[in-house]
Amino acid sequence: MQLEIRMNGEPMELAPNSRADLELVSPYLTYEDILSSKATIPNLPATPRNRSVLGYPDLLQNDSRAFRYNCEKYYNGQLLQSGIGVLTEAGTDYSFTVVQALGEFFGDYQNKPLTDIDFGSIPLPALLTPIVNEGSSSAVCFPTIVNPDFYSTSGGAIGYGGKMNDYYAGAYTSGGPLVPMVYVDYLFKRIASLTGTTIEGAYFDKPELRKLILFNTRALDGASAVTLSRHLPELTLAQFLLELRKFFNLSFTINGAEKRLTIGFTKDILSRAAVLDWSDKAVKKFKKIPETARRMQLGSETEQADALVKDRPLELEDYLTPELGEPTGIAPLKSKFSSLVMDAPSGTAACKQPGITEQFGQLTNKFSPRLLFYLSGEGLNSIPKASSELGDVSLYWTGVKGLAAVFWRVNEKLRNEWFYVTRDMNLSEFDLASFDFSKKVHVNGVNYLVVKITVSVPISKPAQVTFIRA
User: pLDDT per residue over 231-249, tens digit each?
Assistant: First the structure.
């Protein structure tokens, strides 16, 4: 039985009886963070080979300040875990902290506000069209939005007609502000290009979500190009992903080695049948823990600058699981993303919110993260619109097309039946290396998802596993 540690692909020399502790964690069952697996590795002796592979970090003359290495842990030839090994101390041996590549997946951009990231600009045509493409991709659009308060109390002085992106007889008028809305898909494309990553998955296969746009109130003020960062919400890149995840119940699968993010739907993971039977690996003793919050409350933060929604109209109410047959707690989940109400006469979205513009000293105004669907106008007298609903999907939480019904129903059903089990399991190195947290396992008549596996290698005793009934 052999433990092997590789730094930047090179096998390292280990001290006798070296051990590594692993805590493998499911990334699919929490929404406030993207959890990742952890590992501790033994100190590496400062042998000639190790010093050479690591770049002689113990030399006082070495001016390097960032000793970081791709760190892989193998047991009997099976890759158990990979991450970034950060040197913390160098002397007669070397100490490391191992962090997951996930925490640094987007590099320096990970925790940078979208508004501070240079995503470039999109030149606008001389005759503005409702959709402006970059190559074959829809980049930004200009839907008409009813907003009588864009210029606050000063709109009347300039003859403002109460609409952002006012459109008449096939062209945009000069009677109001032009405000570009960035397509969410296009933002993903720019993120991937900028960070050298691949972003793919079932999320991109749902037709309605291809029309998602990011609402904002930042006017062009005569600019001939759209500076993308000006029209994005004040979220970091990581927050953008997490808040979108809460909204649509997304699953994130990250392959750090390939720099690949696969975005799917958690409901698909929860709907799968069990594919592994671990019954013969289970140690007899276990501990069962009930789920004390079996109802869900799903909702969004409210845009306080919008007079139409700050008092939470009926459309923007939270979804709450109906009362169950017995008392239970409530598990709340709130996304920073929300949507707008609709203006019935025009059939497009509406707000009453001061805009961001050089006119009348309004550059200090803000907007919160909100999503809409872009709807193309048809016919000479129709306008390009934005809506809170498209096809079978609504951007409100309630209703038969609401987010709760479309994306969260499987979670809700399973939460009513959830309980947790911790038990020791006789897992092999192959079980650990090949395990996929998105796959259900069967143990003695019950199907589960695995929450966490804690084990030391070389394996000398059973792994401790936390399950949740699924």
Answer: 999 999 999 999 999 999 9
pTM: 0.91
Based on the domain organization, do 165 and 258 belong to the same domain?
yes
What digits encode the pLDDT tens for the residues 420-458? 999 999 999 899 989 999 999 999 999 999 999 999 988
What digits encode the pLDDT tens for the residues 274-320? 999 999 999 999 999 999 999 999 999 999 999 999 999 999 999 99
Dihedral angle of Cα 280, 281, 287, 293, to the nearest 10 degrees: -90
Residue 121 shares a structural domain with residue 93? no
Which residue range is the domain that position 350 belongs to?
Answer: 109-264+336-412
In the listed set 396, 412, 428, which residue is the last one of a domain according to the structure?
412
Cα–Cα distance between 427 and 212 in angstroms, integer? 44
Q: Which residues contact 326 (CB under 8 A, 6 or more apart)?
A: none
Among residues 412, 443, 460, which one ends one of the domains? 412
Rounded Cα distance, 392 and 372, in Å? 14
Question: Which tokens sit at 115?
Answer: 């508004």
